[in-house]
Structures are given as C-alpha cells and as structure tokens.
Amino acid sequence: MRRQRVEYLHLPPETTPAPLEKLPRRMIVLVEADVSNDWQNDVSEWIIESGCLFMMAWGRDCSSWDDSVDWANLERFDFEPIPEEATVMTTWHEDDSLEEVFDFDVRCAFHQTTEMPLVTIVHIADEPRRDDLLQQYQRIALREG
C-alpha cells in the first residue's frame, strides 16, 4: 500500500477557499450542495493551484466538475500543450456510491510521472461531516492495504 496522508476540508457553498500549500495531491470533491457556475470555476482554479494531479468528483452535477477542472488546467497553460508532469486526470462518479469513489482513489488514482501521497477530501456542503467521511475513507484504505 502506498503511504499517504488524508485531510478533510469543509467548503460551504459560495465561500472563498483558503489557499493550500501547493503539493502533489489527489482530490475527492464531494458535492452535496448547489453552487453557481462562477463559484465552481473559482474553486476549480483553486484545485489546480493546490497541486492537484487527480481529481475525482462525486455528488450533485459531478460531471460539470470534471469539465471545469479540465478547463482550469487548460487555461493555466493558455490552451497550449500541457506538460506531462502537469497533466491533471479528472473523473466523475455519478452512478457510484461514495464507498466506490474512495475505493477508486485507493486502487486506481495514480499519475504517470508524480507520486501523490496527499489525499484531500473537499466536502462542498452546508454542514461538515469530517469524522464520518475520514472514517469511511480510512476503512476502505485499510481494507485495500
């Protein structure tokens, strides 16, 4: 099993996310609230700026998150070719359970050039569920390890 650190960030809808240290990371974006397109685009840029190299979206309108993060990365390179080390993989998990998304992260979320020992669970919701979501993730990670 790869060594990793898991962190949880509660992001209430339409609030400004705090800057993150730019580190190679996987992000699981759990969308449990409606958000505006402008805010989604701002958060997608924040995801790219955080060093995210693999983003998995789950929840409300999750396929649009896949697209908005892709666009944010394209814009970062002025729509020119993206260097291999800066390629951001994106997936959406519209028909999957949350357990399946966590399992996908543990077993399948790899980058072609860079190790990503940090997993950031971004929970877009009115109310936080830190302990519950971290326990669910750890249970899957231990089972797969």
| SSE succession | EEHEHEHEH
Distance between the amino and carboxyl termini = 5 Å
Write down the domain tally. Answer: 1
Spatial shape: globular
Radius of gyration: 14 Å
> Low-confidence segments, ≥5 residues, pLDDT <50?
none
Task: Please name the CATH topology.
Answer: Alpha/beta knot
- In DSSP terms (H or I, runs of 4 or more residues), the helix count works out at 4
Strand content: 15-25%
The major beta sheet can be summarized as: 5 strands, parallel
What does the model show?
The protein is an alpha/beta fold. It is about 35% helix and about 25% strand. It has four helices and five strands, in the order ββαβαβαβα. The chain has a five-stranded parallel sheet with strand order 1-5-2-3-4, sandwiched between helices.
How is this fold's topology laid out?
Elements lengths: L4 E7 L13 E7 L5 H13 L2 E8 L2 H15 L12 E4 L5 H11 L9 E7 L5 H15 L1
Parallel strand pairs: 1-5, 2-3, 2-5, 3-4
Helix pairs in contact: 1-2, 3-4
Characteristic terms for this protein:
single chain, alpha/beta, Alpha/beta knot, 37% helix, 23% strand
Write a brief structural summary.
With 145 residues, the chain is of the alpha/beta class. Helices cover 37% and strands 23% of the residues.
